[in-house]
């Protein structure tokens, strides 16, 4: 098979690495890719929102399967355009990707179908939102309705912070049109867990659990980011909780989308909060998480192509997902200053240290090759250093050891990914 992957981050590198393991695949393409993906795939400088060019490329290369990794093209309808051109594609169509594309839609869906989530109100008028906040309990959560690179969520401890948040989202349009509508929801407490799942329109099969670290600095301080590191599995996501979630959260979501005429095929990422009142849905994503994919996919035993094709064909009930009985930890190496301002174009060294090392992975996120042929930084999150271990503690130690193998001038990372679990 010839497989095309759309995207160019750490998630897409993890997907490409899984695809490369399939005995069914002889050629991988990636648009636009990055310096790491280019080692296993043929990359071309076509952006993920250049739909016409992507369709033309897929036709020209006679691609057998296209995998859309990123949220923007999914929400924008790339899958629909590829399918209309007769190109077999993995990922939800536009009318299903709204599950991630509009938080207001997903909250209303959960309310209508009694899927446990935080209490909320939707607002498309800043004055009405401000008036509502005068009567609200704090802390409270403000969410831009649309896509915001994982950063459109504000936790406000006081009325003053909340008023500033409304100004930021709805008036100053910090997140652009994504802030035209805003969700205000109750602040939930508990353990956060990420559960990625494969969906074929009817059946939902979950992968191993994971947990992300969103804040930029140690101790969950600093600004929200796209994710500074992950570990898998979460010891808090027990078999008992998994069974409850399957019955009350996961399957009802897939059934609700089908009932709404929005059949969902692809990946649903369930962001969960394990509250005192039971697990509740924090958010949905319509694709693999980044960096959750970097700890979940290396632990998956199945041929990823088999699973993706089953999702497309509606035969997921015939697939048994299998994962290694171990743990994995991913530590993101970022450019100092991320997620605000940072320098690009800084040479990176040490990649050779990963060669031949079983259980160690260096997933490229923000990298490119410069005119001298050097691999240089090209983003806020630069690399995802992932390692496996028999236990979470061992995987964590291995991952942090491997972060020392890579050098670049403004390298920054959190030092506490999975630490709380490690010490529990």
Automatic annotation (TrEMBL):
Keywords of the record: ATP-binding, Ligase, Nucleotide-binding, Purine biosynthesis
UniProt cofactor(s): Mn(2+); Mg(2+)
This protein's pathway: Purine metabolism; IMP biosynthesis via de novo pathway; N(1)-(5-phospho-D-ribosyl)glycinamide from 5-phospho-alpha-D-ribose 1-diphosphate: step 2/2
Keyword Cytoplasm belongs to the record: no
Positions of the ATP-grasp domain: 107-313
Parts forming coiled coils: none
Molecular functions (GO terms): phosphoribosylamine-glycine ligase activity
EC number(s) reported in the record: 6.3.4.13
Domain of life: Bacteria
Catalytic activity: 5-phospho-beta-D-ribosylamine + glycine + ATP = N(1)-(5-phospho-beta-D-ribosyl)glycinamide + ADP + phosphate + H(+)
SUPFAM superfamilies, per the entry: Glutathione synthetase ATP-binding domain-like, PreATP-grasp domain, Rudiment single hybrid motif
InterPro entries: ATP-grasp, ATP_grasp_subdomain_1, PreATP-grasp_dom_sf, PRibGlycinamid_synth_ATP-grasp, PRibGlycinamide_synth, PRibGlycinamide_synth_C-dom, PRibGlycinamide_synth_C_sf, PRibGlycinamide_synth_CS
Family from the record: Belongs to the GARS family.
Designated name of the protein: Phosphoribosylamine--glycine ligase
């Amino acid at each position: 098979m010839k497989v095309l992957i759309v995207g160019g981050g750490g998630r897409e590198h993890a997907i490409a690495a899984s695809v490369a393991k399939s005995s069914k695949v002889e050629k991988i393409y990636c648009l636009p890719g990055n310096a790491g993906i280019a080692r296993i795939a043929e990359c071309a400088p076509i952006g993920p929102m250049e739909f016409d060019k992507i369709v033309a490329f897929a036709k020209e290369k006679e691609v057998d399967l296209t995998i859309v990794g990123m949220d923007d093209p999914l929400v924008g309808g790339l899958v629909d355009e590829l399918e209309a051109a007769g190109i077999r594609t993995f990922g939800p169509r536009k009318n299903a990707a709204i599950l991630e594309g509009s938080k207001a839609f997903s909250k209303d869906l959960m309310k209508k179908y009694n899927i446990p989530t935080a209490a909320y109100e939707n607002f498309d008028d800043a004055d009405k939102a401000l008036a509502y906040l005068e009567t609200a309990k704090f802390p409270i959560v403000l969410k831009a309705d649309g896509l915001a690179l994982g950063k459109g969520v504000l936790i406000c401890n006081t009325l003053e912070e909340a008023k500033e948040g409304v100004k930021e989202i709805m008036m100053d349009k910090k997140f652009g049109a994504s802030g035209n509508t805003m969700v205000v929801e109750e602040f939930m407490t508990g353990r956060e867990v990420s559960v990625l799942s494969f969906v074929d329109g009817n059946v939902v099969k979950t992968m191993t659990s994971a947990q992300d670290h969103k804040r930029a600095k140690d101790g969950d301080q600093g600004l929200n980011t796209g994710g500074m590191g992950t570990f898998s599995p979460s010891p808090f996501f027990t078999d008992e909780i998994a069974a409850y979630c399957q019955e009350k959260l996961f399957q009802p979501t897939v059934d609700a989308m089908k009932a709404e005429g929005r059949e969902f095929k692809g990946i649903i990422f369930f962001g969960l909060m394990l509250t005192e009142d039971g697990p509740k849905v924090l958010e949905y994503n319509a694709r693999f998480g980044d960096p959750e994919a970097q700890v979940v996919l290396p632990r998956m035993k199945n041929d990823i192509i088999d699973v993706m094709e089953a999702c497309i064909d509606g035969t997921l009930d015939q697939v048994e997902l299998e994962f290694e009985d171990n743990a994995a930890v991913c530590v993101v190496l970022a450019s100092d200053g991320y997620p605000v301002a940072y320098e690009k174009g800084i040479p990176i060294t040490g990649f050779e240290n990963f060669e031949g090392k079983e259980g160690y992975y260096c997933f490229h996120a923000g990298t490119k090759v410069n005119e001298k042929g050097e691999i240089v930084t090209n983003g806020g999150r630069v690399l995802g250093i992932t390692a496996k271990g028999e236990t979470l503690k061992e995987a964590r130690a291995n991952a942090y050891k491997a972060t020392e193998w890579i050098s670049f001038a403004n390298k920054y990372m959190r030092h506490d990914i999975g630490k709380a679990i490690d010490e529990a």
